[in-house]
Amino acid sequence: MSRKQTKADIEKEKQQDKGPQTGGAIRGAAGGKIRFDSDTGKLLVRLFSFFERKYVIRLCIVALCVIAAALISVRSSMFLGEVIDNCIKPMLIQSVPDFGPLKTAMVKMAGLYALSVVAILTRQLLMVGVSNGLLYKIRMTLFGHLQTLPIGYFDTHPYGDTMSRFTNDIDNIRQLVSQSLTEVFSSTISIITVFAAMLSLSWRLTLVVILTIVVIYFVSIGVGGASSKNFTLRQTSLGLINAFIEENLNGQKVVQVFCHEDKIKKEFDEKNEDLRRKSVTANSLAGILMPINASLGNIQYVILAVVGGYFAINGNGSLTLGMLASFLTLSRNFTRPVTMISQQVNSLVMALAGARRIFRVLDEKPEEDEGYVTLVPAEEKEDGSLTETDHVTGTWAWKYPHKTSGVLEYIKVRGDVRFFDVDFSYTPEKQILYDVSLFAKPGQKIAFVGSTGAGKTTITNLINRFYDIEDGKIRFDGININKIKKSDLRHAMGIVLQDTNLFTGTVAENIKYGKLDATYDEVVQAAKIANAHNFIMKLPQGYDTVISGTGSQLSQGQCQLLAIARAAIEDAPVMILDEATSSIDTRTETLIQQGMDRLMSGRTTFVIAHRLSTVQNANAIMVVEGGRIIERGTHEELLELKGRYYQLYTGNTN
């Protein structure tokens, strides 16, 4: 049993993606202004902590290239004025124009532009490697962290939304690192150098430029702030629509069986329309920044030309025509980086929204494991004592270092599982199990039956500690399972789930998933136990046949047989079968029942089944209703009681 994401959970996720009410990274404030809070810096610092040391030198070279390109750009603009005043203007009064100085100046300008091209290309090529290296590290960290999260996280978060963190959110970070940040840095350097150059030419015209830039700044902040909230909401909407698509693709057969194609299309249209509306709003606001700023820049250029022309004519030589030409070029170069920075605000908003979503996953607490009892291969001496070995012997022991006495004890793994007054809740407001007590002696077959949602699967999830209990105790071979390391506890258990999960690879590799170092003979033997060998040999390449993760080449029953073989090869002392035969037809069930009996022989087995014919030979049958064990006994004993089990078996509710 798993707790699915509720409407309240989704709404909570939406509110989180909008940004915290205090201290958010970037959020739209009243009046459409963007506020950069203290968390913005922390978020960027955390993001760039993923840079490896080998990329620091490359970033330094990139910075030098940016500075060099900015200085060359300023020098070329200043050079234009020098050419007009020192080369072209003198030629106008010469009877025989001397083109020598002009040719020399043109060669120098060509050299400067060539250096600028080299600097820009070097910057771009280096940033490709740097940005992809950062994304590689983020993806590795995110995927690795997901492997440490408890099952409860995946039960409460849609797969599609989790996938969008790897795709859309990381892609927004790529845009930020590979382009936006370098553009912002380059633009900042350009603003500083160009401003210094303009100030050296004319402080009056520089003042005109500053006034225009102030107007551009407030327009950019206002429009950018209005779109920032929609960019963040768009990311959330995109994650939800991805989850919807993934869910319905997996359940396409069910959709078609119940003829719900129109219903699903209608729901998708609503979600798609919501995404379209938010995307249009955000991108429209972002898109008008450039034409607005371009228009303001053109107005500025006209004003500078008029005012500068006046000073050049009536300024007593303080501003020459060449200086005016250089200033007009510099003003263009000054407005362009300001506009570029304003354009990158939206990329920054989107990237930080994506980074926030990624870091929210990374901040999820890993599955806690305070266990210290481990599973080790052992040899049994003549006196019955156990010793640890460095090779597999077929005998396993719990290595139990007693913390109080300091004594190291080896306890043979037998598969004795006992519950003592266990209570459990997925959420505090709803208790699932009440005072559950049971025991399974080594080699016994224990079956759980009852209505859907009664708590049967939850009981087995507690045995392998997918979830931890609230009260009571569970002991494995007399050891409290809280003291056993989770990985070792799960190695001692084989499990076959109702929903079969295969992985893209060969049939043999899927079976070996239960024991990665298994030999080919062990794979074949496990397949024979599950009675899967015959159908496998009929496949095009037998055990080397490649199947997809969905198992589309195989029938549902064949996929289930592979899952059973995968559990068989693990050879664990405890076996959990959660509706293991639910996807198998009657004829196939008859064929595999013998294999299942061989699989369960000598092992403690917990079976969850709606098909009561599969559990009649169980040593004990537990009838679970409302989170409580209301009846227990053998098949015959429970029929004599004529209680709930009798009703389930006979269909007689009277």
- Strand coverage percent: 5-15%
Mind summarizing the main beta sheet?
6 strands, mixed
CATH topology of the largest domain, by name, is: ABC transporter transmembrane region fold
Number of domains: 2
Overall spatial form:
elongated
List the total number of helices. Answer: 20
**Radius of gyration, Cα only, in angstroms?**
36 Å
The number of strands is: 18
Mean pLDDT: 81
Class by alpha and beta content: alpha+beta
CATH superfamily of the largest domain: ABC transporter type 1, transmembrane domain
CATH-derived architecture of the largest domain: Up-down Bundle
The neighbouring-strand order within the major sheet is: 12-15-16-9-17-18
* End-to-end C-alpha gap: 29 Å
Question: Low-confidence spans: pLDDT under 50, at least 5 residues?
Answer: 1-36
CATH class type of the largest domain: Mainly Alpha
Approximate helicity band: 55-70%
